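Order emerges. As here.
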Amino acid sequence: NPPPFACFHSLPLDCSRHCHYLFQKVPTVMGFFSGGQFKENVSAVGKVVAVTGCNTGIGLETAKELNLRGAKVYMLCRTEERAEAAKAEMVQAGCDGSRLIFLKCDLASFESVRKCAQRLGELESHLDVLVNNAGMVLGEFSKTEDGHESTWHANHLGPMLLTELLLPLIEKSAEGRVVLVASELHKRSPKLDINKVDSQEGYKGPMEAYNKSKLGNVMYARELARRLKERGSTVTVNSLHPGVIKTELGRHFGVAVKVFHVVGGVFMKTRKEGAQTSIYLALSTEVKGVSGGYFSDCARATESANAKDDAACKELYDYSLKTIVACLAEDSCYSKLCSLMPFTLSRSFQIIMPSCGGQFRENVSAVGKVMAVTGCNTGIGLETAKELNLRGAKIYMLCRSEERAKAARKEMIESGCEASRLIFLACNLSSFDGIRKCAAKLSECPVLLTQLLLPLIAKSDEGRIVMVSSDAHSLSPKLNLSTVDTEAGFHGGIEAYNKSKLANVTKSKKKHSKKEEVQIMYTKELARRLKEKESSITVNCLHPGIFRKSSTLGVFMKSRKDGAQTTLFLALSTEDCKRANESSLANDEAAAKELDYTLKTVRLN
C-alpha cells in the first residue's frame, strides 16, 4: 500500500540533482529569511473559505489565520482524525471551533472530490475563497483508483476538479478568489507532454512528477483566469510559491533526503511564514481584481517560460477537462449524448458541472393562486409543486400514475405542504383523450393541454405559462413537418428528444418585455398570437440544467431542487428574466408560425 498523502509544497529532493540548486538559492527560494509577510489589517468576518490539506503544515496555518480574522473555514482533508487534531490545535491557538468545519476530501479520488463539492454546495449558498493547498508525492510510480498517476492526480486533476465544481458557488461571492499553492520547482519541469504526463512511460521519478504537477497548477491558474475574464466573471485565480517548508515529506524518501531535511532545515521557512502568500492572495486588497498571476513572498513573481505558453495552457486545460469529464462517461446514453454535443469543452463542462445554479430567492407569495404542474410526481416537477404549495398556491398535480402521485404528495406533506391544496388529476401527455379528460376536469402533449387551458389562464390577472425545455434543443436538426412524427423521421431516442425540445423553444424578434424575450417554436408563436389578441398571458420556456441519474454522475449535476429554480422564477418572479441563448433554428420565425400544423394534429384548428 502506498504511504499516506502529505501536504507539502516545495520539494528539495533527489539530493544529487537538487541540493546544489536549492542551496544556491538559499536567500530567495529556501526562505533563509522569513520572506514576505502579510501585515494588512483585513477582516475576514462573514467570509466563507475552503482550504484543502489544512490538517498540517502551511494549510493549517492558512486556515488558522483566516479563522482568527473571522472567516468560516471548511477544512477539506483526507482523514477526519487528523483534521480533528488540527482543529484542536487551532482552537487552542484562539480559533473559533464553530467556524472550523471538516469535510472529507481525498484529492486523489474523483468520487471523494465530487461528494465533497456536493456537500459544500448543500451547506453554503456561496464561497468566497478556495485555497487549493494540499499536495502529495510518492517515492515510486503508482496509480489512483481512477487510473491516473498518483502525483499528477492529487496535485493537478483533483484540485482542478474541485475548483471547477465549486466555481458556481465562488461566482456567487461579491469577490470570489481561487488560490493554487504551486512551487518554484515548476521551473524545473520539462515542457508537459499531455500524451505521457499521466502515464508510466512519462514517469521519470518522484521529483519530476512533482515538478510537472506544480507546472500544471501554474498553467491551470493562468488559463482558468483567462477563461473567466473572457466570460465576464469577477472571480480571480492566482498561483503561488510558498517558499521551502520543513514538512513531513522526508518520510517518503531515503536516508539522504532525511539528512538533507535535518541539515537544511535551518534554511527553511516555518509553516507560518510559508502560509503568508496564501493568506495574502485570499484577503489582500492589493490583489483585488488581479487574476492569472504567479506570486511569491506576497509579491508578483516570474513564472517559467513553459508556464506562460498560452497555447500550451489551453491545451492542458482542454486535456485535463476531457480527463475529468471522462470519469462521468460510464453511462452509455450519457456518453452518446456527450459525443453528439457540438459545444466547446468549456461549454460542455459548464452545462454538466454540478452546481446549484441560479437560485430563486425572491420573497413572493403564491397565496390564492391556482396552478397546474405536469409530471410532478418526481424530480424537478415535484420540487416545483412543493415550493409553490409552500408559498400558498393550490396545486393540481397532473400525473399519469395516481400511485406515484400519492407517494409524491405524501413526501411534500412531510416537508410542510398543505394537503388540501395538493390535488391529483390523471393526465397522460401521450394520450389526447387523457389530456382532454384532464382539462375538462379543470373547467393535450403539452400543446393540447396548454390550448385547452388558455381560457382558464386568461381569467387570471397575471396568467403565466412555463415550458420546461432543454439546451439539447440546440442539437436538433431543422424540423421537417412531413416526417417529424413518422417512423421515417425517427433517428434515435436522443434526436427525437432534441426535436421535441426545439419545438418547445423559439425567440421572438418582436419587441416584447424582457420576460417574453426568453422563448423557444411553440412558445414563441403562442406568445406572438396572444400578444396580437392583447392578452396579458406570458409564455416562456427554460433550460433547467442537467440532473443526476446515478451516483457516478451525481455531483456533476444539479439536484432536483436546484433544477426547479428557473421554473419557480418564471412562475412567480416580479424581476426581469436572465436570458439564455437559443439555437439559430429556434429563431426561425417562419418555422414557428407553422404552429397550425400542430393544432391540426391535436384537432384544435
